[in-house]
Amino acid sequence: MELKDLIFLLSSEEKNAFTAFLSERNRRKSIRNIDLFKAYLSNNEDKIKSEIGPNAFGVLKKRLKDALIDFLGQHRIWKERKEEVAIYQYMSIGKRLIEEGRGKSGYKFLKRAENLALEEEHWTYLNELYHIYIEFSNHPLSPKLDELMAKHQ
Predict the structure, then answer these.
(1) Burial (CB count within 10 angstroms: exposed 0-12, middle 13-18, buried 19+), residue 43
(2) Is 66 in a helix, a strand, or coil?
(3) Helix or strand or coil: residue 8?
(4) Model-level pTM?
(5) Predicted local distance difference test score (pLDDT) of residue 113
(6) Cα–Cα distances in Å, from 85 out to 6, 78, 106, 109?
(7) Could you please report the per-residue DSSP string of 94-131?
(8) Residues with pLDDT less than 50, the chain
(9) pLDDT attached to residue 153
(10) 37 burial via Cβ count (<10 Å: 0-12, 13-18, 19+)
(11) Which contacts qualify for 93-101: CB closer than 8 Å, 24 or more apart?
(12) How far apart are CA 93 and CA 95, in angstroms?
């Protein structure tokens, strides 16, 4: 896999976050991985290669590539978990509000959870949400069972 291909995947916000990620990881100030990253962004990596030599450049490039793979993996997982946590929070707050007699607010939270789960295509959470709707189907504000069955299919 080519380093340039990995760099291409980054948005401008992620490029800034990756630079911060590298600076946090660097134990010494003499490490030039941030310089190499910036050089790749400006298509000027040959300048660093001529300054440090081809062997050191290869090692630095390998370290930068490994750090970028770590960053992309962690960033993706963090983003997905953040969405899942939001869905789960809305579901649990909605369920608790309904249990405590605050159905109007509770169903608003459940609707938010449903919209977010549909948007992110989290089918497991949608299934759990529909089970909550069925559990409280005797509540006056609950969606009709026919509607739920149609959504669930």
Answers:
(1) exposed
(2) helix
(3) helix
(4) 0.59
(5) 94
(6) 28, 10, 17, 14
(7) HHHHHHTT-HHHHHHHHHHHHHHHHHHT-HHHHHHHHH
(8) none
(9) 62
(10) buried
(11) 94/132, 95/132, 95/136, 98/136, 98/139
(12) 6
